[in-house]
Amino acid sequence: MLTRSYWCEAIAHTLDDGRTFWLGAHAAGSPRLALRWLQQRARHISDQLDPPAARPVLHWLDDTQAHEHALADLASGTPYSHTIFEDAVRYLLTARPTTRPRP
């Protein structure tokens, strides 16, 4: 029997030279835990940005409607992504449903 889990990742992509940096990954057991991990990573990223660049991230962190949409997508089996825009870098936070054998 298979059980659904959620694979979450955070990456940064530089626009000037096209390099990609892996910032972390996490396996979550539910859509809510996956979203919580994405929110934690977004908070870490926002802490490193200048205040004007951090504002949209902080808005997303408080956006209950966006979070409900993300939870609904993940629960229905649809991947979810959120992009953070900074001058020369794009940060991509993703969560996608996966299946694994149930222990």
Taking all residues together, what is the mean pLDDT? 93
Number of separate strands? 4
How do the strands line up in the largest sheet? 2-1-4-3
Stretches where pLDDT is under 50 for at least 5 consecutive residues are none
Describe the protein.
- This protein has helices spanning 31-48, 51-61, 64-75, and strands at residues 2-14, 20-28, 80-85, 89-101.
- The N and C termini lie close together (9 Å).
- Helix 1 packs antiparallel against helix 2 (51-61).
- The protein has three helices and four strands, in the order ββαααββ.
- The chain is of the alpha+beta class and 103 residues long.
- It is globular, with a radius of gyration of 14 Å.
Summarize the structure.
Helix content is 40%, strand content 40%. The protein is α+β, with helices and mostly antiparallel strands and 103 residues long.
